Amino acid sequence: MSQIADAITYLTRSLKLARSPELRRYVIIPLIFNILVFGGLYWLSGSWIAGWITAATADWVLTGFWSFLNGALHFLIDAAVVLVWILLLGLFASVFSIGVQLIAAPFMGFLAEKVDIQITGHPMNDESIPAMILRTFKRELRKTWYWLWRAVLILFVVLVIYFIPVVNVLASAIWFLWSGWLLGMQYIDFGADNRQVPFEVMLERLKEKRWLVLTFGAIVMALTMIPLVNLFIMPVAVIAGTLIWVEQLAPSTPSPGSQQTINAVGAPLQSTQLAQQENRPQGNRVEP
């Protein structure tokens, strides 16, 4: 229950941080990007389908005894066009946020970086902007591969369960939990990636706070399915995910088999820092 409450608290905090002067511009840039991409694709798709319906029904005119129904026929055609726009809005609301993740990853990386520095006070490793964009793009491809084949397997299991009486009530729950885990991982990983924590290490840390990740992802998923709200929730979710990583999940010890020491915020310690730790007085020690 404490992890569920923490997820709600982090989202509330992220709403306040998103409006802060330090982060506002980093929230507005991806927001404008989302609106332009979403609006452009929505308008082009809707205009093309509506134009096709209008052209296909241009010659639909009743004559003779049935001519009095022409008004109702034109009304139905106009209603079909309006229905297309509404259905497209719902479709884009559910699919758009998944597709735009890959394109908007660098913008989200910048936002997560500023949140991390503001909370921890620790600077990031020196990295050029092209290198950062390339790294985040590769990370998104890695995450896409992680969830894509697993989603196919889980979908197969859900479909099998769906046709089994009584047990089929679990189908929706399984898919909901998987989707919540996926979105939680997606947004929390921005903070881990900025500190260049390996993807496998990040996953192991997430498993230690399963309910926190699931609750956070489930809430974000519910908000993402609301048209127009899905445009605004993405930057807020990045802020919340970064807070969760920094304050709850960042490793403080090396992962098994790792040759790097990782500090409290997940950043590899430099060689000078390691040397300082090795030479630091440890108190009175009795040598064997």
Automatic annotation (TrEMBL):
Compartments where found: Membrane
InterPro entries reported for this sequence: CysZ-like, CysZ/EI24
Main location: membrane
Any Pfam family the entry gives: EI24
Example GO BP: cysteine biosynthetic process
Transmembrane segments: 26-44, 49-69, 75-104, 145-164, 170-190, 211-244
An example Gene Ontology CC term for this record: plasma membrane
Membrane topology: Multi-pass membrane protein
Tagged with keyword Transmembrane: yes
Signal peptide stretch: none
One MF term in the entry's GO annotations: high-affinity sulfate:proton symporter activity
Domain of life according to the entry: Bacteria
Keyword line: Amino-acid biosynthesis, Cell inner membrane, Cell membrane, Cysteine biosynthesis, Membrane, Sulfate transport, Transmembrane, Transmembrane helix, Transport
Annotated protein name in UniProt: CysZ family protein, putative
